[in-house]
Design brief:
The chain is an all-alpha fold. 50% of the residues lie in helices and 0% in strands.
Length: 309
């Protein structure tokens, strides 16, 4: 069933300052995992304490509780201002702080799985509630005046889920087996989104917007899409409004090519370079924005949480 769409006065296009990689703690490090190699290992199974925490979180469905859980899952570790904004947004929700602490119990590799589960519940809310929750998400994320690249992708995913998936385009049979046959505008949109992802894939560079490894990854993706066409674009990170515009173009990509693009992203990240947890999360969020499943090579970086109903 089609849900009423959130109006296009798009808060995601406002150019907020984006935090440098060195100034914001990576979630892998926050959870005691090395930022580089940890995500390339298959995540361990959740232990008994973590499973109990998730079971309790899944039972929190009272008034305001889903709102509190969504905001808790999007908090930047160590940000006092975001924490204060969370407290203000959850005023009157008695279980909000307990829920936040339970969220902290989950391993880093389970947080996006938890976010997607909570988002699915929140997306069923009436339009007015979804609008209010989207603004609350934005206020919490922006409380310290910065939005990390990963935060922006998550904010876009929240909005996308709240609007509901767009109808899939079947496309035609011509060149259906490759990305190089796409129109120029679509290939440029892929290059632009990939340039944004290169800030995190395979890993963020603390000294540059896009490091050498990210630029090499972007080039591999672009060459797989450009094929023999001349003048493949350089790695130029799009501004927030251009990022949103490019995403809207990509969300018209036919359903057969979306998994192909996801595989191209993952395959370009594999040869000899470790994929960080933030990099894996960026690719997972990008797959979510295109309503396409993660390739198995990417899915193995994450804990899958049991469904407690």
């Amino acid at each position: 069933m089609h849900r009423p769409e959130i109006p296009p006065a798009d808060p995601d296009t406002v150019p907020l300052a984006e935090g440098a990689a060195a100034g914001r703690p990576a979630r892998a490090e926050w959870q005691g995992l090395p930022a580089g190699r940890a995500a390339n290992l298959a995540p361990r199974l959740l232990d008994e304490v973590e499973l109990k925490a998730w079971a309790r979180l899944r039972r929190m469905r009272g008034p305001g509780e889903q709102r509190a859980l969504l905001l808790a899952l999007l908090l930047t570790p160590g940000s006092a201002r975001e924490r204060q904004a969370f407290v203000e947004e959850c005023h009157g929700v008695m279980t909000a702080e307990g829920g936040r602490r339970l969220v902290q119990t989950l391993p880093a590799a389970a947080r996006l799985s938890a976010l997607e589960a909570v988002l699915a519940q929140c997306a069923e809310s009436p339009l007015a509630e979804r609008q209010a929750l989207l603004m609350a998400v934005r206020r919490v994320m922006c409380a310290d005046g910065r939005v990390r690249p990963l935060d922006r992708l998550a904010l876009l995913l929240v909005r996308h889920r709240f609007n509901g998936p767009a109808p899939l385009h079947r496309g035609g049979a011509r060149d259906a087996g490759e990305l190089a046959g796409l129109p120029l505008a679509m290939r440029q949109a892929i290059a632009g989104l990939s340039a944004y992802l290169a800030r995190l894939v395979p890993a963020a560079d603390p000294h540059a917007v896009v490091g050498a490894a990210g630029a090499a990854w972007h080039r591999a993706v672009v060459l797989s899409v450009w094929g023999p066409a001349p003048h493949p674009p350089a790695c130029q990170v799009p501004a927030p409004d251009a990022l949103v515009k490019g995403l809207r173009t990509l969300q018209t990509l036919d359903w057969m090519r979306r998994p192909m693009l996801a595989r191209a992203w993952v395959e370009a990240a594999q040869p000899g370079v470790d994929l960080s947890l933030d990099g894996a999360e960026a690719l997972r969020l990008a797959c979510g924005l295109l309503d396409t499943p993660m390739p198995p090579e990417l899915a193995r970086h994450f804990n899958q949480l049991p469904d407690h109903g």
